[in-house]
């Protein structure tokens, strides 16, 4: 094998490395295992460069290294994706809680008979938040955690602004008919 390794390109190992790089890309390694994936791709390019120089022993070494790095990238991508999923879902849960808080405040303001025009911006924000939350849930379902995280960060800003604005609205006690005590 050592003799054939020196006289011909190590095609089997190159094919294995290319397959591993393709699998790593499909696993999301470009996003979740950037360094290891880039090293695997670079190793594959070095392999081709060594073949061009007819240094098949070096090409074999680069191909084996590229395959190993691609396999490492696949593992890292799985871990990174799981971590991104947990973080995104935790952010989603926090935002849903804050959305419920805004809904509760709006209902309390309605009971307190706060004029509707004072609640208009908070209601509009709530509509936007619900729409964006649905879109974020769709992205989470598709495994697009980075995009979902970006959406949720935007939603959190809208929600924080709406909650801060809602706190400024004076809460009036409900009116009671004259002569009746509550």
Fill in the keyword field for this structure.
Butyryl-CoA Dehydrogenase, subunit A, domain 3; 0% strand; 182 residues; single chain; mainly alpha; disordered N terminus
Tell me about this structure.
The chain has 182 residues and is mostly helical. It has two domains: 2-79; 81-168, Butyryl-CoA Dehydrogenase, subunit A, domain 3, CATH 1.20.140. The chain has helices spanning 2-7, 11-26, 29-32, 34-52, 56-111, 116-141, 145-168. It contains seven helices and no strands.
Tell me the structural class: mainly alpha
Separation, N- and C-terminal Cα atoms: 95 Å
Radius of gyration, taken over Cα atoms and rounded to an integer in Å: 29 Å
Q: How are helices and strands ordered from N to C?
A: HHHHHHH
CATH topology of the largest domain: Butyryl-CoA Dehydrogenase, subunit A, domain 3
Q: Could you name the ranges where pLDDT drops below 50 across 5 or more consecutive residues?
A: 1-5
- The proportion of strand residues reads under 5%
Write the SSE topology:
Layout lengths: L1 H6 L3 H16 L2 H4 L1 H19 L3 H56 L4 H26 L3 H24 L14
Give a short overview.
By secondary structure, the protein is an all-alpha fold. The protein is built from 7 helices and no strands.
């Amino acid at each position: 094998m050592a003799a054939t390794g020196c006289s011909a390109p190590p095609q089997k190992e190159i094919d294995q490395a290319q397959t591993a790089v393709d699998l790593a890309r499909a696993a999301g390694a470009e996003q979740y295992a950037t360094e290891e994936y880039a090293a695997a791709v670079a190793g594959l390019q070095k392999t081709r460069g060594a073949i061009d120089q007819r240094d098949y022993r070096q090409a074999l070494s680069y191909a084996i290294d590229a395959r190993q790095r691609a396999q490492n990238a696949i593992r890292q991508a799985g871990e990174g994706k799981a971590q991104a999923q947990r973080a995104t879902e935790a952010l989603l849960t926090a935002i849903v809680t804050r959305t419920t808080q805004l809904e509760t405040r709006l209902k309390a303001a309605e009971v307190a008979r706060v004029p509707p025009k004072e609640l208009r911006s908070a209601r509009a924000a709530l509509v936007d938040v619900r729409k964006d939350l649905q879109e974020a849930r769709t992205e989470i379902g598709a495994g697009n955690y980075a995009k979902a995280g970006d959406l949720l960060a935007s939603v959190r800003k809208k929600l924080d602004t709406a909650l801060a604005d809602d706190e400024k609205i004076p809460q009036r006690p409900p009116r009671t008919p004259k002569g009746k005590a509550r």
